[in-house]
Design a protein that fits this description.
By secondary structure, this protein is α/β, with parallel strands linked by helices. Helix content is 43%, strand content 14%. It binds nicotinamide-adenine-dinucleotide (NAD).
Amino acid sequence: MSVLDTFRLDDRVTIVTGASSGLGVAFATALAEAGSDVVLAARRVDKLDDTAALVRATGRRALPVATDVADPDQCVALVESAMSEFGRVDVLVNNAGISSAYPASRETPDQFRSIIDVNLHGSYWTAQACGKVMQPGSSIVNISSILGLTTAGLPQAAYSASKAGLVGLTRDLAQQWGTRKGIRVNAIAPGFFATEMTDQYRDGYLDGLALRMVLGRVGDAGELAATLVWLVSDAAGYVTGQTIAVDGGVTIT
Ligand code: NAD
């Protein structure tokens, strides 16, 4: 087997949450290109159908499942749907996420909780459900953020706490499930990639950060998806508990 073969995901079954827009679409498509069938989760099932068409265009199977990851029961139902359709779950990509920016002096408990509920709790509920059915050799990737590692000028206590929480969650699940279940758990901390989420930034915000981007530009979703494919594949078989920054160098400045 050549080294390139170890990057293949042929006949694996992957769940991608937040697959209805942005990075989730790029992740689902790249995983399918690498050979995986993909279970697509998000609240908007009509938009999931668009992603499903992209997956099917690669020749792989797609299963859209309407899911609000903030609801633990819906996370369990998502994994049950995957098991009844495909009989296995090899990879989970916890990508569903929302962001907000409120000054700490004014942020309400509900505003703070709503971010933690989706970004941190939702990832944990889905990982727990997958952990029950995953076989040795499986892998989980939590999509954190450079906001889990550093600051970027906006008042984002809830988002930053949720993404830093994912770094800790990743480490702990990796140590709980490595030897016992043979499941690797890692995180990716993306820098700035143009999506619906970054569309919410005020004009000039990204330009102001340009000096911190060592590579001098925002990232392309394909660059992130390539890291994901590596991380969930056998090519990363000895990597667990890590948070990999894919950020054009923002976190070294
Ligand atoms: P996006 O808004 O385009 O996509 C977010 C996805 O999550 C959408 O499919 C949305 O429907 C889904 N989602 C939101 N709430 C949900 C819920 N309760 N249940 C199920 N699905 C839900 O944004 P994106 O930029 O593609 O973000 C994807 C992930 O990447 C997020 O976790 C985000 O925090 C992270 N991230 C993005 C960037 C970036 O620059 N775009 C940087 C760092 C981290």
